[in-house]
Structure formats: structure tokens, C-alpha cells
Predict the 3D structure of the following.
Amino acid sequence: MKSAPVLAALAAMIAFAGASPADDPKSDDSALLFTSFRGNGEDGLHLATSKDGYSWTPINDDKPFLKSKIGDGLMRDPHLIQGPDATFQLVWTTGWSKHGLGYAHSKDLIHWSEPRLLDVMKTEPKARNVWAPEVFYDEAGARFVLFWSSTIPGRFPDTDAAGDDDYNHRIYATTTRDFETFTPTRLLYEPGFNTIDATMARDGDRYVLFIKDETRNPPAKNLRVAFGASPLGPFGPPSPPITGAYWAEGPTAIQFGGVWHVYFDRYTEHRYGLVTSTDLTQWKDESDRVHFPPGFRHGSVVRVPSSILTKLESVAGR
């Protein structure tokens, strides 16, 4: 029989690996948490929670939990994960032009490290931007994978005319174990079209990459999915669109109750959407079922211990 400490460690590893098909968002020992921003991202990190994955309630009267002055002083597209040591890692877009990505960490989502700028495209001085960064923990490699979208003028000339304002993005990545040293930046995914807003999830032995087709001419602006054997790829060809005729961006994915939930920003309609799937192939639009706080913008969904949510809710009204 395994000792209590070993059993506890195994339980922690299973919990960190992500939601199993049987996981229930109403579980007493975990909670669903959603990060987001408001307006142009001027005021910082907003948090919301849900008991069922459909109705989301702002925490702390929708007041921000973290502000940042790095880059252009914005905090757009905040993406959050909890690493294997229980530390929360947060990355975000700091501005419209190239600055790098914002980074901070926290044990409780209330007390944060000083925000830092990570210049992930310093070897690409012509890069125009660093948008919608995300971080994924690669258990096999015991490292964090950071990825984002950037336009490097002239790098993919065949699709230069397909974007808005001469933007022609692809997804780039680097890895780190400590957020101090990083591997050389590399191209993560080239789907053959202008693409932004990648997010990643693990599905058994494969890795799932959700992306936005950012093609403007002719208009696409939809979400697609690709699969790979590693979080660094290679990823296969993108699927047909998994969202409808409306314009969609900023996907974030989580699995519970045996169902994959992909939330996204229906940004031209100023509302949020949801598509669900049991097999990551056939998708059902459940956008009419979800309810988010007013002004909710591009963020990420994560499962956190209920004790963390209790602490977050205790700061309300301070």
C-alpha cells in the first residue's frame, strides 16, 4: 500500500493534468475561474467564476486584481494557468505594437509579483507585435511553453494581402523552466493563412491547438482546431471552422462532464460565445446559453482549488 504522502502527490499530479471526463464544475474542491479584461485593457485583470460553466459572475464587484504599467500599460488577453508547484502564471498583451509579453506570478491570485516584460521577439527586430500570449505546461518536458501571434513583414508573402492593415500573423513559441531563461523563439504553427489567438489543451496522448483564422480578404474570422503529438508540434492541418458565420476570436478551452467547452469572444456583437464537443470533431453552438459580465473581453478559463476562490471572494468590498 502506498503511503499517504505518495497518494497525495499522485492526487496532485492527476488534478494538475486537467479535468477528466467525469469532472464536475460543481465539485466541492475545485471551481471554474475566468480571466478577462475590459475596454482596451487599461485597468488590469478581471476575474469571474461559475458553478456550471454557463453563468459567470464577476468577483470583487468586477474590480481588477492586478494592474500593469509595462509596455503600453495595457493588460489585454490575460491567460492564466496553475503550474505543478501550485504557482499561478499569468501572461498578457501589453500593447498594440511590439513590446514583448507581460508576465507575473502569484500563489493566491491576490498578491502578485511585480509585472515584467518578456521580450520574446528580441531576435526578430522587424516584428510588429506580440499579441495574445498564452502559457502551457509541458509535463513530459517539465517546462512551460509560451506562445503568441506576431507579424514579421515579408516572412509569409503569399498571404500578405489577406489581413487587416498589412498584418500577417503566425504563431511563435519559446520554452522556459523558470521564466528567467528561454529557448530561442521558433515558429510554432504555419497553417497557410493569417492566424492569431492560439490556445492549447491536452487530450490524452495528443495536444490540441485552437486558432483563429484572421484572414480578412476574403473574410474568415473563425476558429479552427489542429492536433499534434507534442505541445511544440508539429501540428497537422487545421480543421474546417468550428464556429458559425459570426466573427470569433480569443478561444479558451476546458473539458468537464465528458464535454469540451470552447469559449470565445464574438467581438463584433460585443458578446461571448460557446461551442461544445465530445470528440473535438463535431461541434454544437451553445452561445445562447452562456451569460457573462458586461464588457467581458478575451480571457482564459481554468479550474482552481475552491480554497483559492474563497480567498478571492473574501476581498470583495475591501
Notes: The chain has two helices and 19 strands. The chain has one domain: 4-314.
